[in-house]
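We read letters as residues; the fold follows as tokens. Both lines appear below.
***
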Amino acid sequence: MKTIFLTDSKTDKDEFKKISLEVSEAIADAFTDDRAYSGPTPQELKEIIRQDTILPEEGLGWEKTFELARKKILPNLLRTPSTDYMAHLHGPSLVETLAAEQIISTFNQSMDSWDQSPVATEIEVEVINHLCNLYGYSKEADGIFTSGGSQSNQTAIILARDWFCNEILKYDVKKFGINDRCLRLRMYTSEISHFSMEKSAHILGLGYQSVVKVPVDEKKRMDIKALRSLIEEDKKAGNIPFLVVGTVGTTDFGSIDSLKELSEIARENNMWLHADAAYGSGVIMSDKYADRVRDINLCNSITVDFHKMFLMPISCSAVLIKDGKNFNALTIHADYLNREEDEEDGYTNLVDKSLQTTRRFDALKVWMSFQARGKKGWSNLINTSMGNTQYLYSKLKEDKDFEVITEPEISSVFFRYAASENADEVNKKLRRQLIHQHGVVIGQTVSNGHVCLKFTLLNPLITHEKLDELKALIKQLAQ
């Protein structure tokens, strides 16, 4: 290949356009039907992609390389826009955000310092300001884009720990590190919350011991009475409650903890309240269902994921902080990157607020999709998915062959085929049959010791007729 980069050269520009067109056509041609997956097993895939080496002595050039990708990879990629894909909180990508991805990759901005991403920095600041307003925060709020919900949660937990140590314990953990008293810090979260809570505690040196799992009620929400009891028990034992994490959309059930009650408990005990809304943050866009997350502005921090309900390419997430000054916990100056004199003159260096140094310009995806679709367009997308969820729930509930675990609050339907003496094995086999024989990809997990299936209905192209067909197919395969 003669062309190395896209430059102002006509030859380079022509080659870039040619390659871009070829790739676009091949991607479009790979969508041969509505199946989510072409069907090969792991063993079959290993044979399909096998090459003597991925680094030949002489390069194959663009045409031969792309032909390999066209034959071996594109046909076997998971097709997330398919209405047969509903396994995880991982959905299709809006077309305008695919365009944004091309811009992001081509210009390759690095979001750590202003001189590496001038207009990109200003766009991210603008988007964060609007997001803070959207979730009910005041002008004192701030935020930063992250790699995903895990990093957003980790950032919030770090800021909560540092705030608590500085303001309540009067100890500078940033300067002096963890001491014996810090090892008594305790954070409280639902027993079905995301595993990033334990991971973050480990990384912070607090250990899994610091994460207190609170039982859930019959609606899969954090049990408020149990939370109060656990906090009091810890206090009596000499431990130090510092953080409550409310989940706005649990991974399996989509359940929403009572943020209003959690905020009262946090305030009574001088604790930070974080909302892990990686899943449920999209509900705010609905003119019909937004009331379900109305108390989210009571939280000190919020995790928002745009590669879930917001239907944007991975990765795209943000953490919002009610009091932006708390980002000072992550600020450290380097002469080669975020010079203090530049910031005094109005140059924003976003690395001051981020766990990452190099970051992608993911805010562009949010900016473009919000501009393109507006409030009404977004409301229609969210309403459709949540309406589909209510429809499927009602259909499964009225069918005696199925057991529905809990009434959905967002867009996940959690159920099992129950008309069998060996229901657990039947449900396991159902998921495998669906993916390999029918190209249908659904989720599987466990509740109360039983294997269950899950539809995560993020795709607004799914119809009631489609849901009826899938329900009938599952019943047919099970019987």
Q: What stands out?
A: The longest strand covers residues 240-247. DSSP finds 14 helices and twelve strands in the chain.
